[in-house]
């Protein structure tokens, strides 16, 4: 499965809770298939970054009006499509604590979600796309050729998240991070607008005991199988 192929369907939608391995798998899958990769979460972070930079408050109406009047699209960077706001590429600033804190609230606003939805759908027109997030298969691309829902045990997700942040995963640290992730799961799954949930026709892959390469192999195999009709 190491070769590149374009036999897969035009959109591969990958959803799942935080730290289930969505983004890393999606980027590798896109590279293997020769598709573009879009991490939808980065778009919400980009809006948060832009709002903080411009000093725009939390008023949904003002934020929506300002966003609609601002050039917001995607640019290609190292094989992935990354957000560009008003001509600027936020880059590593998207991972700052301030942006992270603001992005959660930003993602709940209908005006913001409408803009992100438009960008994602426009980007996928005429090109193979792998997109990951929490509502990709249910809201953004309900007709995707392949829908995948990644899951993993909360303690394993906590261990991965700590390692990702350069923190030693001690038993206490894992327990605390797992509690935070579980609370986020509940919030994401219970929100009124585009909640986190598995699409009825999505393939569930439990990544708890899988190596990242095994997850990628499984998704690529499914994509090729769907296209071939086997």
Key terms:
230 residues, alpha/beta, 7-stranded mixed β-sheet, 9 helices, 16% strand, disordered N terminus
What is the succession of H and E elements?
EHEHHEEHHEHEHHEH
State the helix count: 9
Q: Indicate the mean pLDDT.
A: 90
Please state how the strands of the largest beta sheet are arranged side by side: 3-4-2-5-1-6-7
**Sheet with the most strands, sense and barrel status:** 7 strands, mixed
Detail the poorly predicted runs.
1-9
- Coarse morphology: globular
How big is the Rg? 17 Å
Please report the distance between the alpha carbons of the first and last residues.
16 Å
Class per helix and strand makeup:
alpha/beta
How many β-strand runs?
7
How much strand content do the residues show? Answer: 15-25%
DSSP helix fraction = 40-55%
